[in-house]
Write a structure and sequence with these properties.
The chain has 155 residues and is an alpha+beta fold. Helix content is 32%, strand content 43%. It has a single domain, classed as Nuclear Transport Factor 2, Chain: A. The protein contains four helices and seven strands; from the N terminus they run αβααββαββββ.
Length: 155
C-alpha cells in the first residue's frame, strides 16, 4: 500500500501540479486567478447579481446540487439560479477556499461555504453550511471558468 502512495506522489510531483492553500503559502498566477473566481462568486451572490454570477460559468458547465437533478449547460444553470435569486430578499455568503490544484487547462478547488438568507415571500431566515468541489477550465484567452461544481451539506 505504501508503494502505491509513493508512486502517486511521484507522478503528481513530476506532472507539474501546483498546490496552494490561501493564507498558508504563495499561490501561482493560475491559483490566484482561480481564487479571484471564488471572490467574484461571493460578491455576485451577496449582491444578488445573477448576470455577474453566470459569467463565472463555462458554457458547458454542469451543476450538481443536493436534492435536484443535475443541471447541464450555462443556460440551464442560469434558469435554475434565476428562481433562487428571485426568491431571496437578502443573502450573505462566505467561502473558505481550502485547496486549489492546477493540472494544465483544468483545476479543482475545494472548500466550505455558508449562506444566510431571508426569503422574499415569507421573511423567514435560512442558512446553509456546506462544502464544495469545483472543477475549473482554462479558456482560450487564459481566463478560468467554473466547469463542474458539486456541493453537499454539513448538516
Amino acid at each position: 500500500m505504501k508503494r502505491g502512495w509513493l508512486i502517486a506522489i511521484f507522478v503528481v510531483a513530476m506532472s507539474g501540479v501546483a498546490f496552494g492553500y490561501p493564507g498558508l503559502g504563495k499561490l501561482s498566477m493560475d491559483q490566484t486567478a482561480i481564487a479571484r473566481i471564488f471572490e467574484a462568486y461571493v460578491e455576485a451572490q451577496n449582491a444578488q447579481d445573477l448576470e455577474s454570477w453566470i459569467k463565472l460559468w463555462d458554457h458547458d458547465g454542469v451543476k450538481l446540487a443536493p436534492g435536484v437533478p443535475t443541471i447541464y449547460g450555462r443556460p440551464a444553470i442560469y434558469e435554475r439560479a434565476m428562481a433562487s435569486f428571485a426568491s431571496t430578499l437578502s443573502r450573505k455568503m462566505t467561502i473558505e477556499l481550502h485547496e486549489v490544484v492546477v493540472m494544465g487547462d483544468y483545476a479543482f478547488a475545494d472548500g466550505t461555504y455558508t449562506v444566510t438568507s431571508i426569503a422574499k415571500a415569507t421573511g423567514a431566515p435560512g442558512s446553509t453550511d456546506a462544502k464544495f468541489m469545483t472543477i475549473l477550465k482554462k479558456q482560450s484567452d487564459g481566463t478560468w471558468l467554473i466547469y463542474r461544481d458539486t456541493t453537499s451539506s454539513n448538516k
